[in-house]
Specification:
The chain is of the alpha/beta class. It has 13 helices and ten strands. Strands 1, 2, 3, 6, 7, 8, 9 and 10 form an eight-stranded parallel beta sheet that branches. A two-stranded parallel sheet has the order 4-5.
């Protein structure tokens, strides 16, 4: 259930200058959760709690809000991340579903049930119901979570999908079920509002999804009606060996955007305003997502604008005094540095 924590958490970022907030993965059913702490949107009370948050953000600034909708798949029924990330619940767990009966951590994680047609139909209906609720809660956008080894991602990756039916084998077959679900969501989501898809563009494991594969995956979602592709990577297999660094996932966004002529969201160790300006100005993405910088500073965007001398940035009217003082202090520091 979204609580007052979520109201303050998202509301403060909305007042802090962010143009678009993408929520945490919000689950379509109780057994779709990663942990018992995951939010959902499968009942009326959750829908109303989300609407309260969305209404607050809309009423206190210009920020838009996207609900990220997903299903944990084989990565579900685990403890809270700050207690023991990816470790199974010691009690109160639930049965997991996946395209193939492969545990996330062999010898540790629960072995999921291989999904049959009835499971696929039920989960697709859950995603459609969540989409309808997101529309009723006045979200501006929804994001279909098909990344990071969760259910839809695990259909797409050959590391986790070893089915022998029409939902396994070729890349097109592996994408078949996620595309079925996405199209069903698109049919009930307001036509004038955008939908994004988050994908893992690189599994970082031999035999897994490569950046070239991700272009083909993004093309299929573009054809299915995706307005923007949110380009992440990894978290599909514990065997991954990512190559980290500043803006390390931006090349994947760049390739998808410019080979497919589709808008993208870049993410991954983007933490300075200069990173954002460079990425956007060079045409490597259309939007940049900065999650962890915003955890450290709810007003990251307002502060970044002031540091660059951009005074036209809209602040909450209650905070205008802080805006003026911050701008004066920054101008004074710049002058002192020139005179030093």
């Amino acid at each position: 259930m979204p609580t007052d924590f979520h109201l303050v958490h998202y509301g403060s970022r909305g007042m802090g200058g962010a143009a678009l907030i993408v929520t945490e993965m919000t689950c379509v059913s109780p057994d779709a959760r990663i942990t018992p702490g995951c939010t959902g949107i499968w009942n009326d009370a959750q829908q109303e709690a989300w609407k309260r948050i969305v209404d607050f953000i809309h009423g206190n600034g210009n920020c838009k809000v996207s609900l990220q909708i997903g299903h944990a798949g084989r990565k579900g029924s685990t403890r809270l991340a700050w207690d023991a990330i990816d470790m199974p619940l010691q009690s109160g767990g639930w049965t997991l579903l996946a395209p193939s009966p492969l545990p996330y951590i062999p010898g540790t994680s629960q072995i999921p049930k291989e999904m049959d047609r009835a499971d696929m139909d039920r989960i697709k209906a859950d995603f459609v119901a969540a989409t309808r609720r997101a529309a009723s809660a006045d979200f501006d956008m929804i994001e279909f979570h098909a990344a990071h080894g969760y259910l839809m991602s695990s259909f797409i990756s050959p590391l986790t999908n070893q089915r022998g039916d029409e939902y396994g084998g070729s890349l097109e077959n592996r994408c078949r079920y996620p595309l079925e679900v996405f199209r069903a969501m698109r049919e009930v989501w307001p036509a004038q509002k955008p939908m994004s898809v988050r994908i893992s563009a690189h599994d970082w494991v031999p035999g897994g999804i490569t950046p070239d594969d991700s272009v083909a995956v993004a093309a299929l979602f573009k054809q299915a009606g995706a307005d923007i592709i949110h380009v992440s990577s990894g978290q599909v297999s514990k065997q991954e060996v990512p190559v980290f660094g500043r803006m390390f996932q931006v090349p994947f966004s760049d390739q998808i955007r410019n080979e497919l002529d589709v808008p993208t969201i870049a993410v991954g160790n983007i933490f300075e305003a200069d990173h954002v300006n460079t990425i956007i100005a060079s045409g490597r993405a259309d939007l940049c997502a900065l999650a962890r910088p915003h955890l450290a500073d709810a007003a990251w965007t307002l502060h970044a604008a002031a540091e660059q001398g951009y005074k036209e940035m809209s602040w909450p009217k209650q905070y205008k005094g802080g805006k003026l003082q911050l701008e004066r202090n920054l101008e004074r520091s710049a002058q002192l540095a020139l005179n030093a």
